[in-house]
Design goal:
Elements lengths: L5 H11 L6 E5 L5 H8 L3 E6 L2 H10 L6 E5 L12 E7 L8 H11 E12 L15 H13 L3 E10 L2 E9 L2
Parallel strand pairs: 1-2, 1-4, 2-3, 4-5
Antiparallel strand pairs: 5-7, 6-7
Helix pairs in contact: 1-2
């Protein structure tokens, strides 16, 4: 759990165009795999998660020398100032957001103009049940992309990828 999913982090880095000096917010950071990966590439990273246990695990596995901090919060209430990030990503967690519109408003608020959003989910089949439903169908990904446009994001696109045996679908967008 704490060391897997590096493929997801690598994909998020590629989709976001992450570079040294970027300031990243990882919404739903869990054990911090993508946080540590981005920090290793020279980014300043804030991991946000609503679960104190996940934040403890993330801190446990993160070097104190890393340019990383972890804070309790959620997509709908990101505890950061306006315009504090050049990249916001949510890897396999958008399906947990309780309010998509509130989450997108918060992402817009914390992103700098021209900042990038990457929302990545496992591709789910229509009608899937249980854990198989954790992710997005193609229709759900398209609906999320449409919501991004409604919230003023630009250059919105869908990206599909395969990581190991898992198929993913991502929405990539820019803040105006």
């Amino acid at each position: 759990m704490a060391f897997g999913r590096t493929g997801d982090a690598r994909l998020a880095v590629g989709l976001s165009g992450l570079g040294p000096g970027d300031e990243v917010v990882d919404i739903g950071c869990g054990p911090g795999v993508a946080v540590r990966y981005a920090a290793g590439m020279g980014a300043m990273v804030t991991g946000v998660d609503p679960a104190p246990v996940m934040l403890r695990v993330a801190r446990l596995f993160t070097s104190q020398r890393a340019k990383v901090r972890y804070v309790k919060g959620a997509a709908e209430a990101i505890p950061l100032p306006e315009g504090s990030a050049s990249v916001v990503w949510s890897i396999a967690t958008v399906h947990h957001w309780s309010n998509i519109d509130a989450g997108l408003r918060e992402v817009r608020r914390v992103l700098l103009p021209g900042g990038r959003l990457v929302a990545m989910e496992r591709r789910a089949e229509p009608g899937a049940q249980g854990h198989g439903s954790h992710g997005w169908t193609n229709e759900q990904a398209t609906a999320f992309a449409d919501r991004c446009r409604e919230h003023g994001f630009t250059d919105v696109r869908l990206e599909r990828a395969t990581i190991g045996r898992r198929s993913t679908v991502s929405v990539v967008a820019s803040a105006p």
